[in-house]
Write a structure and sequence with these properties.
By secondary structure, the chain is α/β, with parallel strands linked by helices. Helices cover 25% and strands 23% of the residues. It is built from ten helices and 21 strands. 37% of the residues are buried.
Length: 381
């Protein structure tokens, strides 16, 4: 089989992967990206959804090919993209890749192992790539969080939001959505838009507010991360907790106001401070659900809007290296340059949030993450 060599192999062609690759190429680093371009965004997000980010969230560490620059190039007024359709951000990602002249090998890595002083990646086709360093930017697709009782549901009844993106099947259906963040209520809105008979949204926290919020508070944290390497990990635990709480307030307890008119009270029912107490298959379609407050529901589908949790063991290609990667609660332990305990192996994006802060779970962290990681590869502090 064919074999090629590169200085830097980036596994994953989502926002963090292309951001790192662009920053690396700008420094003259021989870089190869392997992965399905924006695969999670294309296959695991509904075509009709909107993003919570604004025109200031972009992918370019050089701040040249920003989302705002893309809108200007397209002749689009930024005030006309609030809320921001996912389709438009995907167009921006394609434009960014073109502007940066990134070559993406549209294939998946099946195995990553040590080879000589670096690594060898094997692809689905059997092709092998030798690399001095590797960046894992594989996103969250394999990190779905599901409640234990979900396993007791019949096949085909329960689905995580990331696997439920085609709403053609919901007409006249009864849905239970477990979770209370933006995705839960946006999936509820999409289901109502597509004619669902009833949607029940169940979550442990109070009813969120639906009002406009600003994410500008994140800017200072990203700037601090850039200005002081290792800034997040050096913060006192109480300060990290306070910042996490701030994200909770903005991201979970406050949701976008444009959802409100799409949540008709006659068909969308909210169950705050409630959990699912019991589920039983029915003799007819679906399941019978008992809530912690005693209410009984019969539903056709259960959709889990329960987020994600890191589990490196669920990335099959890492199997040869897994025993060498130091982990904490499923997260890789990273140094100040996103490098793991395996020298030359870096992780960025969601997998880096333990050591770099919650903002690296959003596209907002892409430019900063790329700049810091490439500085580390170049040997700069």
């Amino acid at each position: 089989m064919a074999e090629s060599r590169t200085s830097l192999l980036v596994i994953g062609a989502g926002p963090y992967g292309v951001a790192v690759a662009a920053a690396a190429r700008a420094e003259g680093i021989d870089t190869l990206v392997v992965g399905r371009p924006m695969a999670f965004w294309r296959a695991h997000m509904p075509a009709g959804m909107f993003l919570r980010s604004g025109p200031d969230w972009h992918l370019d560490a050089a701040t040249l090919h920003t989302f705002a620059a893309f809108l200007e190039h397209r002749g689009i007024d930024p005030t006309d993209v609030d809320p921001l359709p996912i389709a438009l951000f995907l167009e921006y990602a394609e434009w960014f890749v073109e502007q940066k002249a990134l070559a993406i090998h549209d294939e998946l890595v099946t195995r990553l192992a040590r080879a000589d002083s670096g690594f060898e990646a094997e692809l689905q086709s059997g092709r092998r790539i030798r690399a001095e360093r590797v960046v894992c930017a594989t996103g969250i697709a394999r990190f779905q969080r599901l409640p234990p009782w979900g396993a007791a549901l019949p096949d085909g009844v329960a689905t995580h939001t990331s696997d439920f993106v085609d709403f053609a099947s919901v007409r006249d259906a009864r849905l239970l959505i477990v979770g209370g963040r933006q995705s839960a209520y946006e999936w509820a809105a999409l289901a109502a838009d597509h004619g669902a008979a009833r949607v029940d949204v169940v979550h442990r926290h109070p009813t969120p507010r639906f009002e406009k919020v600003s994410w500008r508070f994140v800017d200072a944290y990203v700037d601090s991360t850039l200005a002081e390497r290792g800034w997040w990990r050096r913060l006192p635990a109480e300060r990290r907790h306070a910042i996490a709480r701030e994200f909770w307030e903005v991201g979970r307890l406050t949701l976008e106001p444009w959802l409100t008119p799409r949540l008709p009270a006659a068909r969308v029912f909210r169950w705050p401070e409630t959990v699912v107490a019991e589920v039983k298959p029915t003799t007819a379609r679906g399941v019978a659900v008992t809530l912690s407050r005693g209410e009984a529901l019969e539903v056709d589908r259960v959709i889990f809007a329960t987020g994600y949790e890191p589990r490196l063991a669920d990335l099959p290609y890492l199997a040869p290296l897994l025993d060498e990667i130091q982990q904490f609660d499923g997260f890789p332990a990273l140094d100040e340059g996103f490098q793991s305990s395996v020298r030359g192996l870096h992780f960025t994006g969601f997998a880096a949030t333990r050591d770099f802060g919650p903002f690296f779970g959003f596209t907002k962290g892409c430019p900063a993450g790329a700049a810091i990681l490439v500085d580390a590869v170049m040997g700069r502090a």
